[in-house]
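Here is one chain, start to finish.
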Amino acid sequence: MFEWPRHFCNITDRIPAGRNTINRPKWEEGLTISRQEKAPLRIIAHNGAPEWGGGEIALVDLLLGLAGRGHRVTLLCNRRLVAEAAEARGVETRLLRLGGDLAVHDAVRLALLLRRERPDVFVVGTFRKLWLASAAARMARVPKLVVRIGLSSDTPRNFKYRFVLRRWVDHVVFVADVMRKSYAEDLPELADRLTTILKGVPPLGPRFTQEAARRALDLPMGVPLLGSVSRLVSQKRLGRLLEAHVFLHENAHLAIAGDGPLRGALGQQATSLGIRERVHFLGYQQDIAPLLDAVDALVITSNREGMSGAMLEAMARGLPVISTDVSGAREALEPGADGQAPGLVTGFAPPEIASALNSVLYDRKVLDEMGRAAERCYRERFSYERMLDGWEALF
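Its structure:
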């Protein structure tokens, strides 16, 4: 039988582990998670992203929940920045880089680790790393290989991805059903391996009154206030949101939580549009609960999403959401059986966004009805427990 060379054994740059039983985030304090009557699993996931963003938070939240149900989880990361952020939230992390498609040596290193750790499940969390990650899992004979699709742009656009999905992957999991349907149309032979597990987010913690939340963030009182939570990058198209804000009444304000390379350019754009005094850049917020409690509605103006985590967190707080027609938005914001909708889906042009905002922002009754529908929709479809149940059933 083939044996791996001994000189490959020490293959990871280990970060001092923040074990699953310590360093839990505040939302998890006092939270009791039900356990299914099944043997605990060994689960390893890989994230190849260069920065800490919504997809990385979603994967870590998933692993934390599975750890809370008794499974042993480890996250492998390309970048120390991501690994440290994940560790700070309580997930055991290790550095293991996967480079480009020709970096076969990286796949071998990963295969050696997987062979030693013998996981029951290996989860590929970054679509661009699917080729090397899947090759490694198959070399190591991992029993179950699962790919998590979190962005609408993660599509089987060439032979490489199609080969891997057809030959090596056991399950493809989508956070929104619209993405699963697109895959099923493109690769109908994979239909029985395509699964939608709607994204869920953990509760954020205690609520604030709107007055207390605005005071804590130094935001204006007594005015209509919109909120945005995102990285300040081109994909989020916050410039489009600023352009839409010009069409709102002059007493409307906007609070933006997040940081990124476009911070300076967005500030200059707000100045040139004559709305700088009504736009509040809050920077990165470790806890976004105060912002969600301070604003009257959350606005998403992205070009592409999967199922926006900020949208679901807003819904969990009973906050209406106005979103461009990106993947997942219609599934989350469609009216319920009672006809009440958690928010609105709008077009991408700034006047269209502004029209949707003006239709609800100054009607307290409509905002309250949407808020109640949003919270109800979160409980029934996007709760954290429901998502964890779906993943455990798949495993």
